[in-house]
Recover the amino acids of this structure.
């Protein structure tokens, strides 16, 4: 966690946010609400990272920053929280984001969680959040967040951007929820990703700006001003559309309280090619892992190095990153079969 308080904090805070407090939508009372809020951002890529920075600069008091990935050079053109050094050292996105935000923060806490959010750890990672921001790159996690939102009565902000367009909308329990509009996620390979369709940085930034504005409205208790559904924009064609969300009386989630993603019935434990870089993630072992003991077992030619809560080594022109929570990230390939083969021959799983 990063955070500190200056003796001049009251004066500095008033001065820093003076342009916001003069805005009649926020005011002094609204600014106090923002500074007292605790928000979790799940996924710190282009969209989630832009949202985290906006939330920090607006003055959100506590940001819980959750990401499973490390910084790569290919992410730098659109993921503004990170720099060349983060890429060179393959820094954890969560840790790098927290350090970046602290550089401009004031009396704020930035809590880094280098973890892969799933049904088994969602409650522990998100328990202190009063609002959840989706910056993820996969639908499995989004439907997990939707289940968690309904189960815990906590709103979450859906955000997604690819190519030149994006969608965002706030889901507020008791609904309508995401499944009222989209009952099931698209099948694997059907939805466009930034790896298949590309992305321009301004698209993710635009969606983050729209989404954060909805989040701020909710924190300020401006329910009457909230978008009643989802906003779709294409920054290239200047197309803007709104999709009104209505509660499905037969919704399995917010009506019948069936929560298969949260309960672990719909698991996603296979090798997964990550969006935004040449990396494959594989859930390897049940954590926590003794990284020192694992490093001692590796061939010295692999150049094993412990860095923070990760163990890194090299083989077959790939870099392997083992996390304490049991995940393995194989960088330098998009082939799950090759990634599994590398792990089998190096650590025997």
């Amino acid at each position: 966690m990063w955070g500190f308080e200056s003796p001049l904090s009251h004066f500095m805070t008033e001065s820093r946010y003076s342009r916001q407090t003069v805005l009649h939508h926020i005011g002094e009372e609204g600014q106090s609400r923002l500074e007292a809020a605790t928000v979790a951002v799940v996924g710190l890529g282009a969209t989630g990272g832009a949202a985290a920075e906006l939330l920090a600069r607006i003055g959100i008091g506590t940001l819980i920053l959750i990401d499973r990935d490390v910084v790569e050079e290919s992410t730098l053109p659109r993921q503004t929280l990170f720099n060349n050094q983060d890429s060179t050292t393959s820094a954890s996105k969560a840790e790098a984001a927290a350090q970046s935000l602290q550089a401009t923060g004031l009396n704020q806490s930035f809590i880094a969680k280098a973890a892969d959010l799933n049904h088994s750890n969602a409650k522990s990672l998100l328990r202190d959040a009063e609002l959840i921001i989706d910056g993820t790159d996969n639908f499995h996690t989004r439907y997990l967040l939707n289940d968690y939102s309904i189960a815990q009565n906590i709103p979450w902000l859906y955000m997604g951007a690819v190519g030149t367009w994006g969608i965002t909308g706030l889901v507020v329990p008791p609904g309508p929820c995401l499944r009222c509009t989209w009952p099931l996620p698209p099948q694997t390979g059907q939805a466009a990703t930034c790896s298949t369709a590309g992305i321009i940085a301004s698209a993710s930034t635009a969606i983050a700006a729209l989404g954060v504005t909805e989040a701020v409205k909710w924190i300020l208790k401006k329910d009457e001003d909230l978008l009643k559904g989802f906003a779709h924009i294409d920054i290239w064609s200047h197309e803007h559309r709104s999709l009104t969300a209505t509660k499905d009386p037969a919704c399995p989630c917010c009506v019948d309280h069936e929560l298969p993603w949260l309960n672990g019935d719909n698991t996603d434990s296979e090798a997964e090619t990550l969006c935004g870089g040449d990396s494959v993630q594989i859930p390897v072992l049940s954590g926590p892992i003794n990284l020192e003991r694992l490093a001692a077992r590796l061939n010295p030619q692999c150049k094993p190095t412990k860095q923070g809560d990760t163990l890194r080594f090299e083989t077959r022109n790939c870099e392997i990153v083992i996390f304490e929570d049991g995940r393995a990230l194989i960088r330098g390939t998009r082939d799950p079969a090759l990634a599994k083969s590398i792990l089998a021959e190096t650590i025997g799983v």
In short: The first helix runs from residue 9 to 16.
